[in-house]
Write a structure and sequence with these properties.
7-stranded mixed beta sheet, alpha/beta, globular, 12 helices, 372 residues
Length: 372
């Protein structure tokens, strides 16, 4: 048991060390305020029951420092049952570059909404975010300049959770855990081995979207970001880049309750059966096994104290590269204060990840008022 645990621990340390190397390899992108903007952007937002959030996002995009001749905003109303449609309609009537369309018929869902938005888009570059997000005034101009300089097929850009003033909170625990996901995804991209993206901030060429039939893998409810990214990776492994710029960060909210959090993570896990990429599968199994080992040794420790020693040993080995990675990335994400939650997160994480990893592929979940 100990030897197997040490082998998995070695693989885990090697994995996180590689992410650290990838993160350090990424150059911080500095926006040139005077560069010429040549690419036209189509911002696509799928919105369902977002009356509390959608106006904030629209105002953020209206106030971009990019001239509105260089972008359009397409909001696709996915059969909202609140005032989302009427709020967006008010803006679309006032601004020529804001377009409101709706999902009709029996079919629905985020993927269909995005597909409809892309179908009517005029841009060569598609920018996707979520209706409950906020962006900086330089979000689109930074994306435009980065694309013009490097011409990638897909850009994966940073997403962070809002932090609360009360450090010891469920919200901030989520923020720190989510930081590890975004940072790992960025580090992997720095090595040209993309494993992760988030639909709240992905950018891709319209042409590369059109190259694939069923680009968003509509047989899965979730995965408009990950599954599409992996299709691009298969043919253009060096054409997926991470935009390491604070001006490109998208901000969103953590889940309010434990129940909502578990439901979200089950939804994310539900698409894992579609993964065929070696890097994603290897990373998933190493992370799952290191946490299974921690869980097993903790349980066995109640019957034989030597397993408590194994548990502590593996936890320490795992925590060393984790804390180094957090220290490096928290500065970029202005999240240094969250590091005080590192130890509580390490203790909780292996319990939660084992639970989600096992049940995520078997139980139903709710999303935007719909059951799947």
């Amino acid at each position: 048991m100990l030897y197997f645990s040490l082998i998995i621990a070695f693989l885990y340390v090697s994995l996180i060390t590689s992410f650290i190397a990838g993160w350090l390899r990424l150059q911080y992108f500095k926006k040139n305020e005077f560069s010429e903007k040549k690419v036209f952007l189509s911002v696509i937002v799928a919105a369902r029951n977002e009356e509390e959030n959608i106006e904030n996002l629209i105002n953020d995009i209206i106030n971009q420092d990019l001239n509105n001749n260089f972008y359009e905003l397409i909001i696709v109303n996915d059969k909202s049952e609140d005032k989302t449609f009427s709020i967006v309609k008010k803006f679309s009537e006032k601004y020529e570059n804001i377009n409101l369309i709706s999902v009709n018929g029996k079919d629905s869902g985020k993927k269909l909404a995005l597909q409809k938005g892309i179908l009517v888009s005029k841009g060569d570059l598609i920018v996707c975010t979520d209706a409950d997000c906020r962006v900086s005034y330089a979000w689109l101009s930074t994306i435009s300049e980065f694309y013009t300089l490097y011409k990638p097929k897909m850009i994966v850009a940073p997403v962070v959770f809002y932090k609360t003033e009360k450090i010891f909170s469920f919200n901030n625990l989520q923020a720190l855990e989510f930081l590890s996901l975004i940072s790992s995804g960025a580090g992997a991209i720095g090595l040209n081995r993309a494993i992760m993206s988030n639909g709240a901030n992905i950018i891709f060429e319209k042409q590369v979207y059109q190259e694939f039939n069923n680009a968003f893998s509509k047989e899965y409810v979730s995965g408009d970001d990950m599954l599409f990214m992996l299709k691009i990776k298969k043919f253009y492994p060096r054409k997926i880049l991470f935009l390491k710029s604070k001006k490109a960060i998208v901000y969103t909210s953590a889940q309010k309750t434990v129940k909502e959090f578990i439901n979200q993570r089950i939804r994310w896990t539900s698409k894992s059966r579609a993964y065929k990429d070696f890097d994603v599968i290897f990373t998933s199994f190493v992370v799952l096994f290191i946490n299974l080992i921690l869980f097993s040794n903790l349980i066995l420790g109640f019957f034989d104290i030597k397993y408590f020693y194994f548990f502590n040993l593996i936890l320490i080995i795992k925590s060393i590269p984790d804390i180094i990675f957090f220290i490096l990335t928290s500065n970029f994400f202005d999240s240094k204060k969250l590091l005080i939650l590192f130890i509580p997160l390490q203790i909780i994480y292996f319990l939660y990840i084992v639970f989600i990893g096992i049940v995520g592929n078997f139980v139903k979940f709710n999303w935007k008022g719909r059951k799947y």
